[in-house]
């Protein structure tokens, strides 16, 4: 059996889905060493992983794009964060490789320096992507603003015209720090963002059709395995037994993004609805909210017991929370605030699995209307759930790691 080293960015939304894959690999007899955010090291150890924190200086670099006033400003801040972290995570992974002596390495796609370290190492390696992959395609709109897919000649002309305008600024910002990291490990530069994304021999893309747009030009190294669902170990809360109404789950980001007004607006919008609202606010303090009688606000509650009884989830558009709801066949109302959330929201709408309400238009009456419409999209949510199940999830991802990185051709495979 193999010893596999995994390196994540300091984000729970990235650690949790890859942990589901690692659980399967441990069950199959492989040894897992992981480097991740310090607050999760002890919990990772309980899963049987040899766990240690990433360089603490990486965590001290705050992802502060929420404070920008414009999309361009947010892009610059985000690139600056990943570039600064990349100067540290590359040497950090290099040290881990030296200590662990792995047979294979799996790297978070947001760790630019660590990706360079993994490539220069020379052994089998992969990346994992838990959000919409910003990879160009003739069959998909340019990534970023959440455009609907093109229809007909006019739509394709729109994509051709907008692609350099949308992709160009990102490339100009991101390629210099990416190539600086590559140069520090003796690697040549990449000319485009797409070239960078397709360098790994395997990219585990944690989604699937029909949530992701169908494409005829997926690179051979990209494997759509569906979301890899995991909840941190926790018993359902006692108060849940007393709830008789249908549940609406409201989520905000696990990393601070100044999205508390989504929870505040949802509590107001649904106060007179025949539902029970459960809002989770891991990056905020619950006492700040005025909570009506048909609601609870918690720092954290495991989502699965709630989704088993939910009629809708209202999310900020984080890929993890949104896909978890859809994997349970629960329709979603998405209120995107930035980052990749515009793309997540559009995919929900295009799949007929819910509704989207841009954060700039967030108001109680509008959110109430969007919620009511989303509830009618249960059939679309179930179609997405079926697509996710067919992709195979953590079992399929683990098999790909075995087949392409470890060389175990007889690995078990889930086909749906």
Would you mind describing this structure in some detail?
The protein is of the alpha/beta class and 416 residues long. The protein is built from 14 helices and 13 strands. α5 (112-121) links the parallel β4 (104-108) and β5. The two termini are 26 Å apart. Residues 410-416 have low confidence and may be disordered.
Strand content: 5-15%
How far is the N terminus from the C terminus? 26 Å
Sequence of secondary-structure elements:
EHEHEHHEHEHHEEEHEEHEHEHEHHH
Helical percent range?
40-55%
Question: Any descriptors?
Answer:
14 helices, 14% strand, six-stranded parallel β-sheet, alpha/beta, disordered C terminus, globular, seven-stranded parallel β-sheet, 13 strands, 416 residues
Strand and helix layout:
Blueprint: E1 3-7, H1 12-27, E2 31-36, H2 41-46, E3 50-53, H3 56-59, H4 71-100, E4 104-108, H5 112-121, E5 125-129, H6 152-184, H7 193-197, E6 202-205, E7 222-224, E8 247-251, H8 260-269, E9 276-280, E10 295-298, H9 303-307, E11 310-315, H10 319-327, E12 332-334, H11 341-350, E13 354-356, H12 364-375, H13 378-391, H14 393-406
Parallel strand pairs: 1-2, 1-4, 2-3, 4-5, 5-6, 6-7, 8-9, 8-11, 9-10, 11-12, 12-13
Helix pairs in contact: 1-14, 4-5, 4-6, 5-6, 8-12
């Amino acid at each position: 059996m193999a010893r596999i080293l995994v390196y994540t960015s300091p984000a729970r939304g990235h650690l949790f889905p890859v942990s589901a894959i690692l659980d399967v690999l441990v069950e199959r007899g492989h040894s897992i060493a992981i480097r991740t955010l310090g607050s999760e090291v002890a919990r990772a150890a309980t899963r049987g992983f040899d766990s240690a924190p990433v360089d603490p200086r990486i965590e001290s670099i705050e992802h502060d794009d929420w404070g920008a006033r414009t999309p361009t400003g947010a892009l610059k801040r985000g690139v600056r964060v990943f570039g600064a972290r990349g100067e540290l995570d590359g040497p950090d992974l290099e040290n881990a490789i030296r200590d662990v002596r792995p047979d294979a390495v799996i790297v978070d796609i947001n760790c630019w320096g660590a990706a360079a370290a993994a490539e220069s190492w020379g052994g089998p390696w992969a990346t994992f992507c838990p959000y919409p992959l910003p990879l160009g395609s003739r069959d998909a709109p340019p990534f970023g603003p959440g455009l609907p897919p093109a229809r007909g000649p006019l739509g394709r002309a729109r994509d051709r015209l907008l692609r350099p305008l949308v992709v160009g600024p990102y490339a100009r910002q991101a390629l210099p720090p990416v190539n600086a990291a590559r140069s520090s490990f003796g690697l040549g530069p990449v000319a485009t963002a797409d070239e960078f994304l397709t360098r790994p021999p395997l990219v585990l893309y944690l989604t699937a059709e029909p949530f992701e747009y169908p494409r005829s030009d997926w690179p051979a190294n990209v494997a759509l395995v569906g979301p890899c669902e995991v909840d941190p170990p926790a018993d359902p809360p006692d108060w849940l037994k007393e709830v008789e109404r249908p549940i609406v789950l409201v989520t905000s980001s696990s990393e601070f993004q100044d999205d508390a007004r989504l929870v505040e607006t949802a509590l107001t919008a649904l106060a007179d609805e025949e539902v029970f609202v459960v809002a989770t606010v891991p990056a905020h303090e619950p006492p700040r909210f005025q909570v009506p009688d048909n609601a609870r606000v918690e720092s954290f509650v495991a989502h699965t017991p709630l989704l088993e009884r939910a009629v809708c989830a209202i999310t900020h558009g984080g890929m993890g929370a949104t896909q978890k709801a859809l994997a349970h066949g629960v329709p979603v109302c998405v209120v995107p605030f930035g980052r990749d959330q515009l793309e997540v929201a559009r995919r929900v709408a295009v799949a007929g699995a819910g509704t989207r309400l841009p954060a700039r238009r967030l108001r109680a009456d509008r959110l109430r209307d969007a919620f009511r419409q989303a509830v009618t999209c249960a059939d679309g949510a179930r179609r997405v759930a079926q697509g996710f199940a067919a992709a195979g999830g953590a079992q399929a991802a683990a098999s790909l790691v075995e087949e392409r990185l470890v060389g175990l051709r007889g690995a078990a495979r889930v086909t749906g």
